Amino acid sequence: MISGILKATDLDEVRAAIESEKALLMIERDVYWPKWDSPWWYILLLEETSRLEEVPVALFKELLTCADRQFLKVFPVNKSDTAGQINGVTDVMCFCFLGSLMRISAKLEFDIFAYLPWAKEWINRYQLPDGGYNCDEVAYSGSGKSSVHSTVLMLEGLIEYTRFTKEATFALHMQKAVSYLLKHQIYLASTGKEIEGVNWDKVIFPRLNEYDFSRGLEAVFDFLLLTGKKVRGTAVEKAIAMLNSKIASKIAHSEKQWLSEEKTVSYYIEKPVMFKDLANMPLVMKLLNSTADNEFVPAMLARVSKKHEEVKTRGLIV
Fold first, then answer.
1. 79-83, 203-207, 251-255: least confident range
2. pTM for this structure?
3. Rounded CA Rg of the chain
4. Please, which residues bridge with residue 267 across strands?
5. How far apart are CA 65 and CA 115, in angstroms?
6. Mean pLDDT, to the nearest integer, of 5-17?
7. Residue 222 neighbours by CB under 8 Å, 6+ apart
8. Gap between the Cα atoms of 20 and 275, Å rounded
9. Most buried residue, 26, 138, 160, 250, by CB count within 10 Å?
10. DSSP code of 14?
């Protein structure tokens, strides 16, 4: 196995990077870490730039196979869940990753639960009473409060899985997650006030695992278009007004340059080094997350706006 950085300075180089022998070795060592320069993050980048078809089938199949081998089969709510030599970061699958993996798998026409059958029961087992999910295990033993981040990524995964399989297995789970988001009016506290320090009113690109109002709004629209359910206009009107404001301002870049701010799990040969190093940001991601304009931000906002029009036409906002 190896440590190191995949190299892609522009989008045309991404496929070559993830097709390399090095990429396969990195997946075998860890399917998720390090951020942001391992194959998984390049796959997410290809999705956000409308190039998901460039993901090699063999590589993604290997990623699913390695995920089954790497992760603990439960989310560690109790101390007994991590008996033995378990790394609570690298050996535990978070809900942000599970939701994203469900979404990408469905788009690539893989049944994720054929590879990770044990993860299917997570959807019911770990949905919190308020309707959401939380990657912080304390929520399951203490606060009981969900995370907007985790909930939206899980909702996206549930929606794409349902589209792909045509099954209604997770209909109630989706509905509960959407209800949770609507209580927050997509990007606010449950009290209706802005949450200090989160910047959810700022457009983010690439999103990867991050959250902004447009992501939550799109997930709600996707749910409505998939199910034909209806929502009250008051629950989404502020987020829709925010979307229209961003489009009117002709914003064409990420308003939050966040990728370079985080530390990551890195590897010294085979040993994980926990959050001592800043995450490497490949040049292609650095450019897309900068203040420079790019074509993907207006296209992303236009896509959400188009779904809003479809929802209105079908009378799903009342």
1. 79-83
2. 0.96
3. 19
4. 272
5. 6
6. 93
7. 156, 159, 307
8. 26
9. 26
10. H
The one-letter amino acid code at 286 reads: K
Question: How far apart are alpha carbons 28 and 166 in whole angstroms?
Answer: 32
Q: Is the pLDDT score of 1 beyond 60? A: no
Instruction: Taking residues 253-267, report their average pLDDT.
Output: 90
Ranges 4-8, 92-96, 127-131, 243-247: which has the least confidence: 4-8
CA 297 to chain centre: 17
Dmax over CA atoms of the chain, in Å, equals 57
Question: Which tokens hold the place of 95?
Answer: 């809900």
Average pLDDT score over residue span 139-167: 95
CB burial of 17-26 (b: ≥16 within 10 Å; e: otherwise) equals bbbeebbbeb
Please state, in angstroms and as integers, the Cα–Cα distance from residue 161 to each residue in 117, 169, 223, 227, following that order. Answer: 14, 10, 12, 13
Angle (deg, nearest 10), helices 95-107 and 39-48: 60
What are the structure tokens assigned to 272, written together? 């994980």
The pair of three-digit structure tokens given for residue 8, joined into one six-digit string: 């892609």
Burial of 147 from C-beta contacts in 10 A (0-12 / 13-18 / 19+): buried
pLDDT, tens digit, for every residue of 59-92? 999 999 999 999 999 998 887 777 677 888 999 9
Peptide bond connecting 40 to the previous residue in cis, omega within 30 degrees of 0: no
Q: What does the alpha-carbon distance between residue 202 and residue 105 come to, in Å, rounded to a whole number?
A: 28
Q: Are 220 and 148 a contacting pair, CB within 8 Å?
A: no
Alpha carbon distance 313, 108 (integer Å): 30
DSSP letter (8 states) at residue 270: T
